[in-house]
């Protein structure tokens, strides 16, 4: 991430809209926020937060349900002898979203429309996502299924990133933790609903993919109908968005944006550790409890249920309290340390009870981190009023890159440990403990946020 920034096109002083009463109000709020700093943004209403939560729930339902169950069921039908195709399809979808996301963010930042900069991309992402789900529903083979998933993931990831960008546009500092807690909660609940829905319509491919998509479309349209996005028709920019500029904007200069860079790096370490911790959960539990892997599913399910409750508790505790205390870094550091403690407890746990306690601590930590770190990265987001979409998509790299690399690293570590006997899954948990603590400590380098 050390490539220098190219000159980035930004709106000129006369770029804000002046046509129409509601557009004028929104433009004046945006100008005032830019001049006085993000802490002066007006508080958003409970209605806005409710609509935002519903919109995110819908997009995550459509986005996560294929990952949680739908894709596995279709691969099972279309290629019953090749379950490894599932990993290939998932990987290609993630790669497509990773490559397209920052471009979509830049285009959103520069969109001129009487409907604003964000709403067209929110609707557009939803439509692309629905097209992808439709292709998946009717696809006669794994190739078409994979193509559909790539299209769907590009669309739904764009829509979810736009919702995050809208939070950057609108939320004052004093509400970011609270809203992060609420949106974190709905994104955790969505996969549960998706799994239940998938189980109900498992034998009907069309419903399996399109019912979640239809729910997402409904909630997105409701949000778009009531959300006031300032008219951006009069926006002007200092330079065109050429291919060279667009590619250069996939990276950023950490010397120019040090707080954003430290937060990015801290998130990278935390998610690398988290992915190490979760990549071989079933195998680790089976080894610790001396139970065959094929018989461990019930134990994993129990841990998962308790873990959801712990994560939800952490989300609300961390998000609401960080807003009240006006502190972020201590919560991020604490979540990293708590995760490390939980992982080490699991490594030395002699029985199921202590293993469960360690797992619960890890999940509480994940909840705290997910709410507070989202608030923190919104606090340090560079060029908030001109390039929020770009930098939010760059932030996603700190999550997706470790999620891609950590399983590869885990496989290499396990292969080396197996040279002297059976694979030692505890090494992964020790590594996860170290990395998450490092992630929390790195965030202490952020200077502009307490």
Automatic annotation (TrEMBL):
GO terms for biological process: sodium ion transport. GO terms for cellular component: plasma membrane. It is found in: Cell membrane. Residues 48-450 form the Major facilitator superfamily (MFS) profile domain. Its main location: membrane. Residues 1-10 have a biased composition (Pro residues). Keywords: Membrane, Transmembrane, Transmembrane helix. The chain crosses the membrane at residues 48-73, 85-108, 120-138, 144-167, 179-200, 206-227, 264-286, 298-318, 330-349, 355-376, 397-419, 425-444. Residues 1-25 are annotated as: Disordered. Signal peptide: none annotated. PROSITE patterns: MFS (PS50850), NA_GALACTOSIDE_SYMP (PS00872). This is MFS transporter. SUPFAM superfamilies: MFS general substrate transporter. GO terms for molecular function: transmembrane transporter activity. The keyword Electron transport does not apply.
């Amino acid at each position: 991430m050390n490539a220098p920034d190219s000159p980035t096109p930004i709106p000129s002083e006369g770029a804000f809209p002046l046509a129409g009463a509601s557009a004028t109000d929104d433009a004046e709020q945006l100008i005032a926020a830019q001049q006085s700093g993000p802490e002066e943004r007006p508080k958003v209403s409970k209605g806005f937060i409710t609509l935002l939560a519903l919109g995110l729930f819908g997009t995550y339902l459509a986005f996560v349900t294929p990952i949680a169950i739908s894709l596995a069921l279709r691969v099972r039908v279309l290629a019953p002898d090749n379950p490894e195709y599932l990993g290939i399809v998932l990987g290609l979808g993630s790669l497509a979203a990773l490559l397209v996301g920052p471009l979509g963010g830049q285009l959103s930042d520069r969109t001129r429309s009487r409907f604003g900069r964000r709403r067209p991309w929110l609707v557009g992402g939803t439509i692309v996502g629905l097209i992808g789900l439709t292709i998946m529903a009717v696809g006669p083979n794994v190739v078409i299924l994979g193509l559909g998933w790539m299209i769907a993931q590009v669309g739904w990831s764009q829509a979810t990133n736009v919702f995050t960008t809208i939070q950057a546009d609108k939320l004052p500092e004093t509400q970011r933790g609270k809203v992060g807690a609420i949106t974190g909660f709905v994104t955790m609940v969505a996969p549960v609903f998706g799994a239940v829905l998938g189980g109900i319509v498992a034998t009907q491919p069309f419903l399996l993919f399109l019912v979640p998509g239809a729910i997402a479309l409904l909630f997105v349209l409701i949000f778009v109908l009531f959300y006031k996005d300032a008219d951006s028709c009069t926006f002007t920019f200092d330079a065109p968005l050429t291919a060279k500029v667009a590619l250069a904007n996939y990276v950023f200069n950490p010397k120019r944006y040090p707080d954003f860079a430290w937060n990015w790096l801290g998130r990278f370490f935390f998610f690398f550790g988290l992915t190490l911790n979760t990549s071989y959960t079933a195998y680790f539990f089976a080894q610790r409890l001396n139970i065959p892997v094929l018989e461990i599913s019930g134990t994993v399910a129990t841990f998962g249920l308790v873990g959801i409750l712990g994560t939800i508790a952490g989300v609300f505790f961390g998000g609401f309290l960080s807003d009240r205390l006006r502190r972020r870094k201590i919560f991020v550091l604490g979540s990293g340390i708590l995760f490390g403690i939980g992982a080490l407890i699991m490594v030395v746990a002699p029985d199921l009870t202590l293993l469960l306690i360690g797992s619960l601590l890890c999940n509480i930590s994940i909840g705290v981190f997910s709410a507070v770190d989202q608030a923190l990265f919104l606090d340090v987001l560079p060029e908030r009023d001109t390039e929020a979409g770009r930098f939010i998509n760059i932030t996603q790299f700190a999550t997706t890159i470790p999620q891609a690399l950590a399983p590869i690293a885990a496989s290499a570590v396990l292969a080396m440990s197996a040279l002297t006997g059976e694979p030692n899954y505890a090494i992964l948990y020790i590594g996860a403990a170290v990395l998450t603590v490092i992630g929390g400590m790195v965030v202490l380098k952020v200077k502009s946020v307490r």
